[in-house]
Design goal:
Layout lengths: L2 H11 L4 H8 L3 H8 L7 H10 L4 H5 L9 H11 L3 H23 L2
Helix pairs in contact: 2-3
Length: 110
């Protein structure tokens, strides 16, 4: 999906008009329209502002990520895990993997 389509989809999900989004990032509704129609690409700085206003990562906005992390607590946890030593990360991932496996098994049998 092109960035313009992503911006449009996410803006509508948040029930924002082009003008609303423009106000949030400091530009006009006409410029937002040009981004949404892929007539022009936002700069990195503007793309970051758009992503922040729409509560997504810039990676998701430009199509490099398929998962949207909107939960700030989840993001904080991931960032904390990233700072841990590798052996501690491995322990956490083992527990998470076991919980995911159990969840999938329950879904398969229910």
């Amino acid at each position: 999906m092109k960035i313009g389509n992503k911006i449009t989809e996410l803006r509508k999900e948040k029930q924002l008009s082009r003008g609303d989004l423009g106000d949030l990032i400091g530009t006009s509704s006409a410029i937002i329209g040009r981004y949404e129609r892929d007539e022009m690409l936002p700069s990195v700085e503007i793309a970051f502002k758009i992503a922040s206003a729409l509560d997504v990562s810039i990676d998701f906005l430009i199509g490099n990520a398929s998962v949207v992390l909107k939960d700030s607590e989840m993001i904080n946890r991931i960032e904390a895990i990233e700072k841990m030593p590798l052996d501690e990360q491995s322990k956490i991932y083992s527990v998470v993997d076991a919980l995911i496996r159990d969840f999938k098994a329950k879904q398969a049998y229910s």
